[in-house]
Amino acid sequence: MKKNLLRNMLAATVALFTALFALPATVQAQTYYDLWIAGTQVTSDNCNDLSVIDGVSGR
Q1: Do 14 and 20 meet the contact criterion of CB atoms below 8 Å apart?
Q2: Alpha-carbon dihedral of residues 33, 35, 37, 38, nearest 10 degrees?
Q3: How many Cβ atoms are within 10 Å of 44's Cβ, its own excluded?
Q4: Residue 58 within any structural domain of the chain
Q5: How far apart are CA 39 and CA 32, in angstroms?
Q6: What's the per-residue H, E or C state across 1-59?
């Protein structure tokens, strides 16, 4: 009984650490596009609102 509990706890701990270190790596990835507007490269951070670029106005 104790061996099964220990094995399950170890498996849960390994799964937790795997998720902690693997998932944030995919979330933080940024895409750079081969597009420049007013000297600023369009990225995944600014592609939805290009008005954050100096010299660009609108929505």
Answers
A1: no
A2: 100
A3: 11
A4: no
A5: 14
A6: CHHHHHHHHHHHHHHHHHHHHHHHHHHCCCCEEEEEECCEEEECCCCCCHHHCCCCCCC
Q: Which two tokens stand for residue 46?
A: 């600014």
Q: How far is CA 31 from CA 23, 40, 42, 50, in A?
A: 17, 14, 9, 15
Tell which residue, 27, 35, 10, has the closest CA to residue 46.
Answer: 35
Host domain of residue 29: 2-52
Number of domains comprising the chain: 1
Distance CA 33, CA 46 (A): 11
pLDDT in tens, 1-59: 778 899 999 999 999 988 888 776 655 668 888 999 989 999 888 888 888 888 888 76
